[in-house]
Design brief:
Forms ternary complexes with the chaperonin TCP1 complex, spanning the cylindrical chaperonin cavity and contacting at least 2 subunits. With about 230 residues, the protein is an alpha/beta fold. The chain has helices spanning about 1-70, 80-90, 105-120, 135-140, 175-180; strands at about 75, 90-100, 125-130, 145-150, 155-160, 215, 220. It folds into 2 domains: about 15-65, no CATH class; about 70-185, 3-Layer(aba) Sandwich (Glutaredoxin), CATH 3.40.30.
């Protein structure tokens, strides 16, 4: 029995020793891996830093290019001929067809001025509808104000009057921003499925919801079908 006990002890010691050895090997292996990771991290961080710097440089160059093409401010163009030149040189253009005698055009001006500063990636223009009969005919502009949304030189969408903006003169800049986001004519960071005017009950104006309104071939329902 004693011999059996001794052999059990020896076996235990051998096992413990094995475990210790294994643990040591595992620890050494982990240490080596950690060291490798530390090394990699430094290189990786350096690479990330370089990539970030390059991206910032690129973004800065892009911004300068946009500014040189008249982005960043909302401005009037004198004639139809200018319209074709302007849309040719910029990927995203919003053009407001206005009339001096239409009060709602001044409301639109206020919001477009704010958005032009915020969305430097898009060119914001205005053109007097009475001085551009050919364009108004060609683009079938019948309601003033109308915004023509031009992408890659082609008119993709229109914002006609204030119908899509909550049907009120009191719509916010955010509401117009959302609508332009739906048309993918600006880089919109909000949620397209949640129009800002739905939470604007404080005005006391009755807002009509965009019921199954199709924008750019997509349906943006005011309420989800699960309701």
């Amino acid at each position: 029995k004693m011999a059996a006990d001794t052999s059990v002890e020896i076996l235990q010691k051998v096992l413990e020793n094995e475990i210790l050895q294994t643990t040591k090997v595992v620890e050494e292996h982990l240490d080596a891996e950690m060291q490798k990771l530390d090394q990699m991290d430094e290189d990786e961080l350096e690479r990330l830093k370089q990539r970030r710097l390059e991206a910032l440089k690129k973004a800065q160059q892009q911004k300068q290019e946009w500014l040189s093409k008249g982005h960043g401010e909302y401005r009037e163009i004198p004639s139809e001929r200018d319209f074709f030149q302007e849309v040719k040189e910029s990927k995203n253009v919003v053009c407001h067809f206005y009339r001096d005698t239409t009060f709602r055009c001044q409301i639109m001006d206020k919001h477009l001025t704010a958005l032009a500063k915020k969305h430097i990636e898009t060119k914001f223009l205005k053109l007097n509808a009475e001085k551009s009969p050919f364009l108004c005919e060609r683009l079938r502009i019948k309601v003033i104000p109308t915004l023509a949304l031009v992408k890659d030189g082609k008119t993709q969408d229109y914002v006609v009057g204030f119908t899509d903006l909550g049907n009120t003169d009191d719509f916010t800049t955010e509401t117009l921003e959302w609508r332009l986001g739906c048309a993918d004519i600006i880089n919109y960071s909000g949620n397209l499925m949640d129009p800002p005017f739905q939470s604007q009950k404080k005005f006391g104006t009755s807002f009509t919801k965009l019921d199954k309104k199709t924008i750019r071939g997509k349906k943006y329902d005011s309420d989800s079908d699960d309701d």
